[in-house]
Write a structure and sequence with these properties.
Blueprint: H1 2-42
Length: 43
């Protein structure tokens, strides 16, 4: 029973970590696009 709980917790941690990485990537992409748009407008 305890082992099962540990497995579930580990799975959740991995899922959260992966979600965090993908979110970070998308946020950086949005910032990059916005910076590009701003540069284009300034030029």
């Amino acid at each position: 029973m305890v082992i099962l709980c540990h497995i579930v917790l580990l799975a959740l941690l991995v899922k959260i970590k992966l979600l965090g990485e993908s979110l970070k990537g998308s946020v950086w992409r949005v910032i990059w696009v916005m910076c590009g748009e701003r540069r284009r407008i300034l030029r």
